[in-house]
Write a structure and sequence with these properties.
Strand 4 and strand 5 form a beta hairpin. The protein has one helix and 13 strands. It is elongated and about 75 Å long. It is mainly β.
């Protein structure tokens, strides 16, 4: 129900996220931020905007992130330059690149039990019982080209083309209490835990084209706001959701989180299931003002 569901479907009643890339603007401005947090987290970001001409600017965003997270470590680095020209004129263009790499160790799960109808955790949430060789490595790289044409009336046409590659490589430990019919009251530091491998790998190449017109006009004494557009989407994907390849993981105990144990990755090259997806959509929306306060 509501305007969000009208625009984006019935699954949006819990809220939607509108992710907007930072655009260059006609003022020199630079900002650097550093964050330190628990789990030995260090994060450094930079946002640099350079005016390169009368109606042109370059903006560069960069980030590095390093967190130990009590064993479930995570390292990130990314950069996103965008060049924009014709700012504020009838025809405005921008071209941008986005690249993000994340190398980490996943805290895939903790065992739990049911008590009085509720799930209860055996272990402290921050404890990492996976292997030092576990990893969750992801990357996203895409380029974006956009053009905005402004009409003499209150309307504009914006067209955007984006092409990118998204990769994910997961090798994680599924943690279970390795005692048959275990009683939680008997949990000690010597209680054995098993580790079972869980592995997934995927690559997606995506191309997206969107073009939308937005404008305002008066008709029959009423104010109208029109939104109309076209979306075209192409995805070529490769997946392997069970890429364990006969790996065997050693166990550990409750009292030895982040014990440093590791195994060699002997799986070789993955085999993939492949698929293609194509979507084309058209949409038109007219918001009419019935009074100055009711639409």
């Amino acid at each position: 129900e509501g305007s969000a569901s009208m625009l984006f479907g019935k699954g949006t009643t819990g809220g939607i996220v509108n992710q907007v890339s930072k655009q260059p603007f006609l003022m020199r401005q630079h900002e650097v931020d550093y964050t330190y947090g628990s789990g030995n987290l260090h994060r450094l970001t930079g946002d640099f905007n350079f005016v390169t001409g009368q109606d042109a600017a370059l903006r560069i965003n960069a980030m590095v992130h390093d967190a130990q997270n009590w064993g479930a470590e995570q390292k990130k680095k990314g950069i996103a330059p965008t060049f924009r020209w014709g700012i504020g004129t009838r025809d405005e263009f921008s071209v941008g690149l986005y690249h993000l790499e994340i190398d980490g160790r996943p805290l895939y799960n903790h065992p739990w039990y049911s008590a009085t109808g509720k799930a209860r955790a055996y272990l402290p949430a921050k404890n990492y019982y996976g292997l030092a060789s576990d990893h969750l490595d992801t990357s996203a790289t895409y380029a974006t080209l956009s053009h905005t044409h402004r009409f003499d009336h209150e309307g504009q046409l914006r067209t955007t083309v984006r092409h990118g590659r998204y990769e994910r490589d997961l090798l994680a430990s599924v943690i279970r209490v390795d005692v048959p019919d275990f009683n939680p009251d008997n949990l000690t530091g010597a209680t054995p835990l098993s580790r079972s491998p869980k592995a997934r790998i995927g690559v997606s190449d995506l191309t997206q084209l969107s073009s939308d017109y937005s404008g305002r006009f008066d008709l029959a004494g009423k104010r109208h706001e029109i939104l109309a557009g076209l979306d075209v989407y192409q995805e070529d994907a490769k997946r392997n959701n069970n890429f364990t390849g006969g790996l065997a993981f050693p166990g550990t105990t409750v009292g030895t989180p982040d014990d440093g144990a590791s195994v060699a990755d002997t799986r070789g090259a993955p085999s993939f299931d492949t698929f293609e997806a194509r979507n084309i959509s058209l949409y038109v929306q007219d918001v009419m003002a019935i009074t100055s306060t009711v639409e």
